[in-house]
Each structure stands twice: as C-alpha cells, then as structure tokens.
Write a sequence for this structure.
C-alpha cells in the first residue's frame, strides 16, 4: 500500500516541502481547494510540473475543482514523514550547532535533538538546553543508547569525514551536513548538504555577471 | 572577453563551488594536475559532467594530462567572483543571524557584513561585533550609505516578504534567504534559499521509506 513512497525523485520531494508550506498558508486563510496552477505560481514552476510531482502520490484532485487543501496536506505530511518523531544527534556544539539546537522549526517538524557531542573538554558534561554534552569518545554509545535516527554534522570541515565514518559504521542512515565539505557516504545513507558557502558563491557569481554587464 | 560568464546553468555554478573546494585540497597536498575522473569521483558525478561543466569556462585541460590545478583554481575563483569583496547587509540579529555574522568562511570568501538591521528596540543601537545594529526604519538609508551588494534574510518567515520588497525597491539584486518561506522576487534578482526545513523534510521522507521497508 505504501509502494508509492519508493523512488520519488529528490527534486520532487524538495518541491513537496514547498507545496506543503503553501497549503498550510491556504488552510490558515480558509481556502478549501487549490488548482495546480496556483501552487505552481507560488513555487515558480509550471502547473504540469505540479501535476507530475503529485502523480507520484497516487491519483487525486478533480478536474476543474483542483486539489482538496486538507487532503493534499495530509498526504504530503505522510509522505514527508512529518507526523513521526525523529531522534537526532547533533555533532558539534559550536556557534552553528547551538543555533540549530535552538531553531524552533526543527522541533515543530518532529526533529528532537536528544544527543549532543563535542570534543571541547570545557563543554563536555555541561548542558545545551536540557541535553548533556558528551565527548566524542562516547559517540557510538550515545547513538545506540539514544536510539538515534539522524545525525546533524556541525563540526569543522577537517574533522567531519572521520566522525561521519564512525556514525555510518554505527548504523545511522541519514545525515544532514552543515560542514563546508563534501562528505563521502555509502549509497544507502541519505545525505543532505546545507552549505552556506555554496549558496554564497553562486550569488557572488551572479553579482560578478551584473558588475561586468554595467 | 568575459562573455563566458553569461548564462552558465545554476547547477553547474553550484558544482564549480564543489570543484573549487577539492582543487584547494589538491593544491594543499601538492598535486599539480587532476583528471576529470578524479574531480568526478570526489563530487559523486561523472567525468563527462565535469568536462561539460568546465567547457562553459573556455577550452583548457590537456588530453591525458588533465587540468592544471593552479590554472583551474584561478579560473573558478574568477568566475565565482571570489577575489571581489562584497558588502553584505544582514536582516535579523537573532540566533541564526548572529551565528551567520560570526561564521568565518563568509569573510574568507569575501563577504563582509557591513550592515545589521533588527526591529528589537533592545538591540538597536548596540553592536554585533564591530557593526552597529540599526532599526528597520533605517533600512533604505543603510543600504545606500553602506553601498550594499547583497542581503541576507534571517528574520521570521511572516515578516520576510515585506522586508525583501523594500530591499528590492532599494535596488539590491542578490538575496540569500534563511527564512523558512518562499520569497517572491523579480526575475532580475538572484535568490538563493538555504532552507533547513526543506533539507530536513527530504531526510524524514528518506527515513520514512526506510522504516516502511523493514
């Protein structure tokens, strides 16, 4: 029955997140039905792309009436796993790690940071919020004891790969990487990079073009 | 002469950032030449893709010898605009904004935060690092006085669009968005989203699939 959750392209899954955001806005505004063209306009894509993306979820939506906002919201929350609670280990309690720990939308989406690891002796044994900071030597124990689903990497780039190798060896199959480095992982581990430097560099490329056009 | 900087696909530009990171690693290790296949392996792509991406930059690289690490590094830094200094305005001096302000790789890549805007009366008039925090009513003046090239949006989602509309009206043509919302901007404004929630949701989709396969 849940076969439809297999093999949906990554790009479509990313658009599901955006569609869901718009649908939640529509629901708050009391809108009950929405046409693919309206979703497309909000997302800067085409109605055909919206229909193709949503066809991965099975067949629904009525010609002329569009999609039921409530039904589509439910289906997207389900396929995105948002009604589950995921147990997250944060590697690195520096500035970026601490900001992530306190970032409200994480918890609102079911991501609970239950483990924090750092290698600074001044931090180990203290708390970040209500979570005890543990040393790197405790990594494998902590992941097992806390039944971790997902790891967030917020350590400096040079130490990231070695730490992630241990995480994968410990059986973790999902990694969110904030370190400005390309991690090498086995194919069966889901990896998402949130690289601020890559985003910045593509902007400076755009700015360079603008300067040269003047 | 710089015509080659026009119309390079966004995805290729993003890969340029990654290639540059690997090349800098190679240079530190004393490696002088690198084959497209080696760059491809590090980036999880194919040698054909690497050659296609680099063909946007003109024709260089020698069959059998590969690319000169130093030459390619220079060309990529140039096309990514990394030897320029960009003046950045940070909108929002909350937790995420403060973490970004202190994020070293920004400055190392030529992005200097010279303006900080917030709407909290308790913050206005104080300093973040050596930059005075100014109120939202001063936004247009600050962007003009500080000759801002690029704006980073780190305010709560509900207020982001209105603020960005003012930024665009003030003539800014590059926006880096950290707010968990889809901003609507004119086509001639370069926008990059670094959405943590979209990345997280695509991971929870992957985790959901894993759970259902068990």
């Amino acid at each position: 029955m849940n076969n439809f959750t297999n093999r949906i392209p990554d790009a479509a899954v990313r658009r599901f997140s955006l569609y869901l955001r718009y649908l939640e806005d529509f629901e708050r505004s009391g809108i009950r039905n929405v046409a693919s063209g309206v979703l497309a306009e909000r997302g800067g894509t085409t109605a055909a792309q919206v229909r193709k993306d949503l066809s991965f979820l099975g067949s629904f939506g009525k010609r002329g009436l569009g999609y039921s906002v409530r039904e589509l919201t439910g289906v997207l929350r389900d396929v995105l796993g948002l009604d589950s609670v995921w147990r997250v280990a944060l590697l690195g309690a520096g500035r970026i790690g601490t900001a992530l720990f306190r970032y409200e939308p994480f918890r609102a989406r079911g991501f609970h940071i239950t483990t924090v690891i750092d290698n600074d002796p001044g931090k180990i044994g203290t708390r970040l919020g209500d979570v005890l900071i543990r040393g790197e030597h405790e990594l494998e124990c902590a992941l097992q004891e806390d039944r971790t689903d997902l790891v967030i990497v917020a350590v400096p780039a040079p130490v990231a790969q070695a730490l992630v190798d241990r995480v994968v060896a410990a059986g973790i199959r999902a990694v969110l990487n904030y370190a400005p480095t390309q991690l090498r992982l086995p194919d069966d581990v889901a990896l998402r990079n949130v690289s601020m430097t890559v985003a910045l560099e593509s902007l400076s490329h755009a700015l360079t073009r603008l300067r040269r056009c003047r």
Remarks:
- Chain B touches chain A through 65 residues (CB under 8 Å).
- The CA atoms of residues 50 and 62 of chain B lie 14 Å apart.
- Residues 1-5 of chain B have pLDDT under 50 and may be disordered.
- The longest strand of chain B covers residues 111-118.
